[in-house]
């Protein structure tokens, strides 16, 4: 493990301390490590479109929009090898929320997510991507504890929560 020292102006240091405590980090090293993982992962995604990633795509859509449910299903089925799981929730009488867990080459994952978010009737779409080694998880010390990685293949699961 390497150690290094950084200098921050007082205002930035105070803001970082507040962030660290709000987010529940036990120490500065842990918070900075996570920030680096996020930023470096974003850089790898931009540079390496063929690199493996895992991603979460969340979006809200108007389920009364003409043929939207069928169009969304066609998009996902056309790239079924990227989909790990889909969760569907009825938000209110007009809107549904879907969260899709994806895994595969970053460029393909992003292309699928962009196609879904571009569909007429889809709102509030957001994609969160974890690249390469980070897609297999990384370990934290202290309060976050343990490794979050999985080395096994995941089956396709489609669960629908109709509790609302």
From TrEMBL:
Residues 150-164 have a biased composition (Basic and acidic residues). Residues 54-129 form the Transcription factor NikR nickel binding C-terminal domain. Residues 135-164 are annotated as: Disordered. Residues 3-36 form the Ribbon-helix-helix protein CopG domain. Pfam families: NikR_C (PF08753), RHH_1 (PF01402). The keyword Iron-sulfur does not apply. Ni(2+) binds at residues 77, 88, 90, 96. Belongs to the transcriptional regulatory CopG/NikR family. HAMAP family: NikR. Transcriptional regulator. This is Putative nickel-responsive regulator.
């Amino acid at each position: 493990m390497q150690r290094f020292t950084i200098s921050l102006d007082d205002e930035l240091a105070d803001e970082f301390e507040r962030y660290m405590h709000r987010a529940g980090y036990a120490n500065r090293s842990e918070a900075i490590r996570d920030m680096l993982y996020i930023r470096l992962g974003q850089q790898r995604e931009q540079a390496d479109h063929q690199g493996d990633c895992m991603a979460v795509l969340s979006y809200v859509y108007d389920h009364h929009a003409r043929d939207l449910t069928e169009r969304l299903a066609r998009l996902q089925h056309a790239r079924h090898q990227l989909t790990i799981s889909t969760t569907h929730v009825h938000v209110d009488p007009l809107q549904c929320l879907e969260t899709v867990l994806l895994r595969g080459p970053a460029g393909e994952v992003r292309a699928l997510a962009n196609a879904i978010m571009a569909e007429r009737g889809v709102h509030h779409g957001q994609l969160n991507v974890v690249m390469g080694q980070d897609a297999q998880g990384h370990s934290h010390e202290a309060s976050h504890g343990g490794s979050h990685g999985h080395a096994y293949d995941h089956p396709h699961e489609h669960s629908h929560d109709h509790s609302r």
